[in-house]
Fold this protein.
Amino acid sequence: MMKQLLNTILALTLLMSIGLAQETGDIAVNASVLAVLTLTPGNDLNFGNISATSTPILDPKTPANNTDLGTTNNAGTYTLAGEASATVSVTYDASVTLSNGATGSLTFTPDMYGHTANDASASSSVASASTITLGSGDPAYYFWLGGDLGTLSSQETGTYTGNFTLTLEYQ
């Protein structure tokens, strides 16, 4: 009987010590819900009619730097809307292959500029894998896309097309 009482006391002591070893802790769970990012494409980038032996460059910030472009050229444009003063990461293609649907191809190397005001001449270069800050009063950001097609040497004729992808995400 004494042995049974001793075993019971030992078992209760063991159970109490296990219960005392248990700890709990709380942490806060937070989320900041921001306005939806809305990217609206504007103009498509167009080098115009170019020579098969040219070095076409379209500078969206300083058109005086354009070379070897057709008369109907224009920079590509996007408008981004979102949360005022929010930081947004920017990524885009390092290059885009343009095809004429046959055997010809060109490599487009992008040159992206952006600003919180819709004024390309006031814009700054926006590198891929960088961040931008949306406007504080008007939570928008404007992008201008230009770039070059390298040096063409007896390029196969035709209409060349491809798609440029711009990806934006809140930080």
